[in-house]
Structure formats: structure tokens, C-alpha cells
């Protein structure tokens, strides 16, 4: 027995009948398209009848509630909040990307799609009443807004999150889409169109925000022996308890991320030597002494602490085990190490890789200003150093991106350019960024790379005249597209020379700001540092 699904296609007016903005048939429903639409409509009604007649024990109670929970995106925004609370970067990025995708897909479907097609809802005489527990929607049916939001969120999460999280989210999105047919709210064609629009919205977020690869590739250290023991014998771990927000104000009240990581090391590698840095202690000396007696040098702390550990590991030719314990842990995350447990697993597996180490060294011979200043992530000068200072002071209270916004506005409002000669060319440098490897993002604080062993420096510079359109520059920084700033230049190089005409430079390396000589040379030691890496 078939149901009478009247008005399942857009209403067609009789010739000569008055038309209105609400009832006039759209142009696509007339002429040669009518026969095609008629066949598709019959197939859609047949598929709806099959689903309506299906009996799926238990799901009569589950699917209507699941469909209801997705009203107005409540299910997805709740999931996004839960992912954000995990504080895992990949999950937080997935939640944000999925939410942005919903913000794009929802108006496309509800404002444009439904008004353009104006398809009536199905007649639900074959749908058991137990499935229709709430008032059916009265808006137009095509495309399905619930399905679009579900697919948009699932696609956004899948671009960032690991499969263990993305797969359940995708399965839930598919269940919501099926529930819209099962409860009689939509024809299958409505749902398929919504899924397509949502998936395109999720994938389309990459146009303005490139998806970040979960792990940067590194060169495998073939043929290199490393002593790995089950109990951690031979490992010397240096812990900076001030990293990750565990400063003097909170020490003894709540353990910081570095202290939690150190505790895990003590439990999992009981034979490892743990060295805890004291306030005011000479960090470079402590790492040098630890590396001298270590088979494996481990470091627990943020990027600045990892920077000091890399110097000691290079000087003593020992592999480095990076255990995340800071606020951002950019280098650890580039390696794919997002937790202390992953770092311990990488050590036990004995997988070594080799990564590039970049440096800034005095360009003038005999300058007497020390040797190479290493960096694993980025170095910057110009107003960038002031921007970094301001952002770091604000980010613990505001969060990273709001802090960056406030810091950019304040810095670019008052900053003056650095008069410098860059590779022989005189420039007024407002912002300068030098990355250890090519970074994939376009913002003022690039954070991810596809490789850690490409042998190149990523140079990005905003150099204009004495006066610069500051509103445009601030907008470019806040939009995450530094290349839109006036005077922006970017290039890849194996080296870079900078001579500041005004005297001493301030140089930020891996988030740590310090004075530098006026003439500096940037370069790279390709694949110089051996590090433990997780399984890719």
C-alpha cells in the first residue's frame, strides 16, 4: 500500500493563475527539467516509503531523541564544548573547525536552499506514531538543515582530530541524518542534499584555514643505535616545574603540566634520573651536566626549555626525548607527541628521527657576542618581539588568539620599524619571522609544518615606508593572513643576513626574547638533532 504524497515536489501553478512571491514555481521546475524531477520525486517517495515501513527494534525510541537533540545544533555545539575542554590541540581545532562549518552550512541551507526549492514535507501516514513524538517541522523540506549541520561538523572534526574521535562523530552524524527520514521529517533526497552541502562547507574551511597535518615528517635515523631500557636506565630527565602555568603562585596548590609529566616519568621509568630545575638555576649548565652523563637526554617543559635541551643534546651527541610540559609545546606537537604517555611510548619503541636545527649567529667576525643562538621553531625581530611580549603577558588570562588580537592592536598602534639591511637590501622592517622549516599557516604566529627536515628557512617580512597603513596591518594579523599586510614579502632560503643600523636587535627564539648583536646571520644545521618520534 502506497501513501498519497501530494505536494512532494514544488507546487506548479495552472496557466493564467495569479502568482505571488510565496507560491510561484521556480524556473528550474519548468521545461525540460520537469520530467527529470518527476522521476527523481517518484524514486524519493519510494525510498521514503521503504524507510517508513521498516521496523528497527529499539531505534523507535533512540532515533527520535537523537534527531531532537540536534535541533538548532545543540548536539554539535555541546560536542564541540566537550572537545574543547579536553585541552588537546587537535580536538580543540576540530571542534572549532566543525563549528565554523556549521555557521557556513546553516544559512546556505535555511536561507538560500529552502527558499529556492520550497519543497513540502512528506506525508507521514506510514510512519508509526511512536517515532513522531514531537511536532513535525513546518518549514520547507529541501535541503535538510539537520543533515547539513551534522555533515559540516563531522567533516570539520575529521580534518583535525584523530580517527578514534572523528569516526564516532561521523557515525553520530550519519545516525542524525537517517533519523530525519526515519521520523518522517524529510525525504531521503532532502537528507542527501543536506549532507552534500555540509560536507562541502566543512572541506571549504580549508580555503581560509588550511588543515594542519597531525605529525610533521622527519628523516628516519637509519642504522643509529640507541640504548633503550624497560625501566629507563640511562635516561636523565631535566624538568622545568615553572613550565605550563605551574609558577610560584600555584606551586603546592595545583600541579602544573610539567610536574604531572615528571610524576608519570617516575612511575613508568623508575630507573631514570630526574633533575628538577630550581628557580634562578643556570638552565644551560644544568642541561650540559645532564647530557654529559646520559645515554638519552629527556626534557620536560615548554619550547624555551626544549631549546636549551637541544643545545646540550647536540654538544654531547645524545638523542633527545621531548616530553610536553609547557603551555603550547609547538615542537613536541610537530613531532606528534601530545602527551607524556606518547613520549614514553616513543622512547620504549626506540624510534629515532633526525630534524633540522636553525640558528642565528653573529655575522661580524670577532664580535665577541657568543656563538650560535639555536631555535627549533621560530625566530623573530622587529615589532614581532614586542608582539610576543604582549601576547605572552595576556594569553594565560585571555587565551592564545584573543591575546594575539589585543597584542597586535597595541603593538602596531605604537611600533616603529627597524632600519635594517636584509641580504643587502635596505628595508624598514615592521614584522619579521624566520621559521625553522616551511610553515603551512599564513598568520602572524605560524605554528605547524609538514616537515622538520626540509633544509630551508621560512622568511616572512612586513617592510614598508616610515608610515604604514596600520589598520590594514592589524586586520591582516587578526584575520590570520599576514600576506595581506602592506609591504609583505615571503621567501624560502638556506640563510639570511640582517644588519640593524640602529644598534642592538631584540630577537625572539622559540618564544624567549633576548638581545642580539646588530649583525646576525641565520642558517641551518640540516638533520643535526636526533629525537624520539612516535609511530606515524
Features:
12-stranded antiparallel β-sheet; Rossmann fold; alpha+beta; single chain; 3 domains; Vanadium-containing Chloroperoxidase, domain 1; 536 residues
Notes on the structure:
The protein is an alpha+beta fold and about 525 residues long. It folds into 3 domains: about 25-205, Vanadium-containing Chloroperoxidase, domain 1, CATH 1.20.144; about 230-350, Rossmann fold (3-Layer(aba) Sandwich); about 360-525, Tumour Suppressor Smad4, CATH 2.60.200.40. The protein has helices at about 35-55, 60-70, 75-85, 90-115, 145-160, 165-180, 190-205, 255-270, 285-290, 305-315, 330-335, 340-350, 385-400, 400-415, 470-480, and strands spanning about 220, 235-240, 275, 295-300, 320-325, 350-360, 375, 380, 420, 425-435, 455-465, 490-495, 495-500, 505-510, 510-515, 520-530. Strands 1, 6, 7, 8, 9, 10, 11, 12, 13, 14, 15 and 16 form a 12-stranded antiparallel beta sheet that branches. Strand 2, helix 8 and strand 3 form a beta-alpha-beta unit. The protein is globular and about 85 Å long. The two termini are about 55 Å apart. Residues about 1-25 and about 245-250 have low confidence and may be disordered.
CATH architecture of the largest domain: Up-down Bundle
* CATH fold category name of the largest domain: Vanadium-containing Chloroperoxidase, domain 1
What low-confidence regions span 5 or more consecutive residues with pLDDT below 50? Answer: 1-24, 246-252
By helix and strand content, what is the structural category? alpha+beta
The largest pleated sheet is described as: 12 strands, antiparallel
Percent helix, as a range, is 40-55%
Please tell me how large the radius of gyration is: 29 Å
How many β-strand runs? 16
Tell me, rounded to a whole number, the average pLDDT: 79
Count of runs of 4 or more consecutive helical residues: 15
Shape: globular
Amino acid at each position: 500500500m502506497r501513501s498519497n504524497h501530494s505536494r512532494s515536489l514544488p507546487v506548479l501553478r495552472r496557466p493564467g493563475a495569479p502568482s505571488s512571491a510565496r507560491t510561484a514555481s521556480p524556473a528550474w521546475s519548468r521545461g525540460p527539467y520537469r520530467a527529470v524531477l518527476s522521476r527523481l520525486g517518484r524514486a524519493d517517495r519510494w525510498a521514503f516509503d521503504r524507510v517508513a515501513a521498516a521496523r528497527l527494534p529499539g531505534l523507535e525510541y533512540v532515533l527520535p531523541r537523537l534527531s531532537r537533540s540536534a535541533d538548532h545544533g545543540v548536539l554539535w555545539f555541546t560536542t564541540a564544548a566537550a572537545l574543547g575542554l579536553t585541552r588537546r590541540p587537535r580536538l580543540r581545532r576540530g571542534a572549532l573547525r566543525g563549528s565554523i562549518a556549521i555557521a557556513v552550512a546553516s544559512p546556505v541551507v535555511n536561507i538560500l536552499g529552502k527558499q529556492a526549492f520550497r519543497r513540502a514535507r512528506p506525508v507521514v501516514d506510514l510512519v508509526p506514531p511512536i517515532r513522531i513524538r514531537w511536532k513535525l517541522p513546518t518549514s520547507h523540506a529541501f535541503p535538510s538543515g539537520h543533515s547539513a549541520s551534522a555533515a559540516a561538523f563531522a567533516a570539520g572534526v575529521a580534518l583535525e582530530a584523530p580517527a578514534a574521535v572523528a569516526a564516532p562523530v561521523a557515525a553520530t552524524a550519519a545516525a542524525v541524518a537517517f533519523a530525519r527520514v526515519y521520523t518522517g521529517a524529510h525525504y531521503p533526497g532532502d537528507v542527501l542534499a543536506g549532507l552534500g552541502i555540509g560536507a562541502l562547507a566543512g572541506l571549504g574551511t580549508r580555503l581560509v584555514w588550511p588543515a594542519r597535518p597531525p605529525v610533521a615528517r622527519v628523516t628516519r635515523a637509519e642504522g643509529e643505535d640507541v640504548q633503550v631500557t624497560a625501566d629507563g636506565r640511562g635516561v636523565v630527565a631535566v624538568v622545568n616545574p615553572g613550565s605550563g602555568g605551574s609558577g610560584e603562585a600555584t606551586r603546592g596548590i595545583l600541579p602544573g603540566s610539567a610536574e604531572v609529566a615528571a610524576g608519570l616519568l617516575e612511575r613508568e621509568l623508575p630507573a631514570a634520573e630526574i633533575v628538577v630545575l630550581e628557580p634562578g638555576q643556570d638552565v644551560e649548565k644544568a642541561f650540559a651536566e645532564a647530557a654529559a652523563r646520559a645515554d638519552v637526554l629527556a626534557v620536560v617543559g615548554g619550547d624555551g626549555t626544549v631549546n636549551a635541551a637541544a643545545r646540550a643534546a647536540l654538544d654531547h651527541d645524545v638523542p633527545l626525548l621531548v616530553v610536553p610540559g609547557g603551555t603550547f609545546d609547538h615542537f613536541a606537537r610537530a613531532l606528534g607527541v601530545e602527551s607524556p604517555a606518547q613520549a614514553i611510548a616513543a622512547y620504549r619503541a626506540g624510534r629515532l628521527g633526525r630534524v633540522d636545527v636553525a640558528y642565528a649567529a653573529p655575522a661580524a667576525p670577532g664580535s665577541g657576542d657568543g656563538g650560535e643562538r639555536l631555535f627549533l621553531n621560530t625566530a623573530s625581530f622587529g615589532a614581532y618581539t614586542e608582539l610576543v611580549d604582549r601576547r605572552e603577558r595576556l594569553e594565560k588570562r585571555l587565551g592564545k588568539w584573543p591575546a594575539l588580537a589585543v597584542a597586535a592592536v597595541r603593538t602596531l598602534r605604537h611600533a616603529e620599524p627597524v632600519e635594517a639591511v636584509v641580504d643587502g637590501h635596505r628595508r624598514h622592517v615592521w614584522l619579521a619571522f624566520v621559521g625553522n622549516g616551511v610553515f603551512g599557516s599564513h598568520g602572524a604566529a605560524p605554528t605547524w609544518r609538514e616537515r622538520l627536515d626540509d633544509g630551508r628557512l621560512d622568511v616572512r617580512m612586513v617592510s614598508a615606508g616610515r608610515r604604514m597603513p596600520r589598520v590594514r596591518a592589524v586586520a591582516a594579523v587578526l584575520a590570520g593572513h599576514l600576506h595581506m599586510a602592506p609591504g609583505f614579502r615571503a621567501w624560502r632560503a638556506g640563510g639570511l643576513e640582517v644588519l640593524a643600523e640602529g644598534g642592538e636587535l631584540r630577537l625572539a627564539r622559540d618564544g624567549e626574547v633576548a638581545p642580539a648583536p646588530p649583525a646576525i646571520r641565520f642558517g641551518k644545521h640540516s638533520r643535526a638533532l636526533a629525537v624520539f618520534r612516535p609511530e606515524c
